[in-house]
Each structure stands twice: as structure tokens, then as C-alpha cells.
What does this fold into?
Amino acid sequence: MSEIGGYSYSKLILEKIPILLLIISVLNEFDFNYLNLKYFSFNFPFILIYYWSLKRSGSLGYGLIFLSGLLNDAVVGLPIGVSALCYLLICGFSAYLRNITLRPNLVKDWFFFGFTILVVNSVMYGTVNLFFNVPIMYASVLVNILFTFLFYVVFSNLFDYYQKIIFGGTNA
Amino acid sequence: MQASSRDDFIIAIRSAFIKKENKQKFSLIALIILTLIILTLGKYNFKTVDYIKIFLREIAYRSSFVVSIPENLIVKIYHSTKEHFFIYDDNRKLRAQLDIQLAKNYKTEYIVAENKRLKSVLDSLEYSSDKILAKVLIDKKSPFLRSIIVNKGSRNNVKLGMAAMDGEYLVGKVVEVSFSTSRILLLSDLNSKIPVDIIPGNIQSILSGTGENDGIIQYTKQQQFIENESKVFTSGAGEIFKAGIPIGEVEKNNDNSNIKINFFSDFSQLRFLKLNSYKKEKN
It folds into this structure.
């Protein structure tokens, strides 16, 4: 009953898990601030968008990424459009890497991710600081970038595993 | 050779940003341009962008509250477990404090009565306040803002600048009002500046947030007279808040080089707040 032309609803839902994860992560308080760990934070949406745009671009629609950026700005209190711009830039960087890569390699992806988040964060903090006069705690920002970079490997492996189970390891 | 690699780079860039991909409904460059337009219009407070902001806030705050329910439940369990382990020690400390407070209470009652009598003699100003009880919807921590969202907005008569209180302690003020929600800028935020009185010594100063969980004292030449464990209250200067709302306690090292304010209220544990607006009344 749940299959139309050999395509099951459950598979359709599982394919949409990345976008659901993205929307949940921009809306909820996934920041561990109640543990009172000084400075600890990482940007999960950056990892998610970069990975899925790189490995399976159809899983995350640009329109929905744009919308989730706007929602993130509303939740965090940033000027509307800043996060959306960052998310779209990450999509652009990952699409560029996808176009020039013949043989994908985790280490190359990882270092390019490091370069991407440095550029994107510079754009983000430049915009909010110069155009909207929002003061920045540079230490927090740097630690956030560092943890985001480090956690990419962990989440990349988890997403690879998920891809293998759901899509049989084929990249779109 | 060089021209060829430059061509490859341009083709890859064009393909990534300009061409619409197979499974995408929008081209990346179109969305980036749209975002830049929104940002520019937002910078100049364009009306349409304001409406988009209000609409997004209403959706985002409500959805965020729902989405955060499971995590909030885990946090609640974590804190109640932690409290359970320390209950014996807490009880002992609280008993000791209660004895001290009871003794102080009699003195305070006398002082309040005397203060009222003296004010009536001077025909001075009294404050009355409108209190609105609000529930905290979101307390997401960002690298920029230390703020929280509460479930009361303009339809509940919340106004910009209202004081946000956790019990009797000041925690921040209202900086953004939507139809059914509001944003409270916490005292710990970098942008927060509150005129305060430091007692004993009656030293007037400005309390500024640090972006962490404490505050600092600014714009005073009397730093050396500030004692450790002095109490910080609102001064009422600038007529933002009424005078005498407790805020926190001074913690300083011996050489006066570092004076920080530990807030009485734990900003990571805020669940309900009172939003107060103070009006002056003649006695």
C-alpha cells in the first residue's frame, strides 16, 4: 500500500531527513549551554549543508536552505538574511568542489570545508559588524569555527553511514 | 596552460553558482542576490522587510518552542537530578541563611516604614508598575546576542524598554516586541548598559554585559572604593527602571584590576519572567 511504482513513502521520508534535520537544528536549542562549558559551540547547520550539498545535492533544496537561514536569523536575533547568505555561500563552495573533484576524498573535503567556513564566517561577521554594528566576541567565534571544523569528520562519517543504509552508497 | 586552468576555474564557478542544477528549483545566484537585497533593505529599515521579520519571528519562535520540547525535557531532568544530589548540602546552607535573613528582615521592615514616612514628608515620587507574567520560549545562545524570547507581545501590552525580572532580580529589558512574542536583552549581553548603584558607598556607575555569564562596572572613578561582595542595584538614573532593583554582587581581586558582577539570577535557568513597566506617581 505504501508503494507507488516501486517507490516507498518511507524511503521518500528518509531522503528528506537532511532537510528536516536542518530545520530542526536552526529552530531548537542544540547548543549545550546548560552544561556551562565555556566557549564550547559548533555550527551544525554548516556541516549539514556542506556535506549534503557536496554528496547528494538533491537532498537539500536551495529554496529550503534559504528559508532555514531566514528562520535561523529570526531565532538567533541576527539581521534578516545574514545566515541565509552564509548557507547559500556554503552551497556554492560545495558545488564548486563537486564540479572539480574526480575522486572524492574525506581529507580534501575536510580541508576545503575548513577554508569554506573561514570565508563564510568572515563574510558573516564582516556583515554584522560593519553594516549592522553588532559587537563580536572573537574568542567565541574562533572556537566555534574550530569545533565546527573538527566535528565535520565525525558527522561526515555518520552521514556516510546513513547514506550507505538509505541510498546504498550512491552519490547523486 | 595557464589560460586553460583559468578557464576550468571559471567553468566550475559558473556551473556552481550561475547554472541551475538538475534537482534544484532555484539558481544559487538568484537566491544570493535576493538575500543581498533583503540585507540591504533591512539595513535601511525598509517597511516590507520589517513585515517579513515580524512574520518570520512569529513562525520561528513558536516552532522553535515546539521543536525544543524534547531537549528542554532532557535539560530539566539533568538539572533536577543534579539538584537531588546536592539537596542535603543546600538544605544546611539555606537554614543558616534563613536565620541571618530573618534577623535582617526586622531591620528592613523598620527602614521601609521609615522611608515611606520620610518620602511622604518630602512629597517625593513613588512608582507603580504594570506586571506581565511571561514564559520563556527560547534561550538560544549565539556568539552575538545574549537574549531570550518570551511568549508575551504587543497584544499583551508589552512595550519596549520594560524591565524583565526573575523574581525580585533584574535580568534584562525588552528590546523587540512582536504581536505575540518579545525579545529580552539580558544584562550579560555586550550591548546592555544599565545605570547602577553600588552599596555600600553609594557609588554610581554603569553595569555593562561581557557576553559571558557576568557583568563589569564601567565609567566610574571610584573603583578603589568598591568593596568585595558589595551589592549592585538599579540607580533609577535615566528613568529606565525604578531605583533599588537588586542585580548582583561584586567580585574583585585584591589589586582592583578586575571587578566583575555576579548576577543574582542564573540566566541559563530562566523559565518565567515578570515584565514590569514603572510609572511615576505623585504621593
Summary: Chain A touches chain B through 54 residues (CB under 8 Å). The mean pLDDT of chain A is 81. Helices of chain A lie at 9-15, 17-27, 44-55, 62-76, 82-100, 106-131, 138-167. The CA atoms of residues 6 and 148 of chain A lie 39 Å apart.
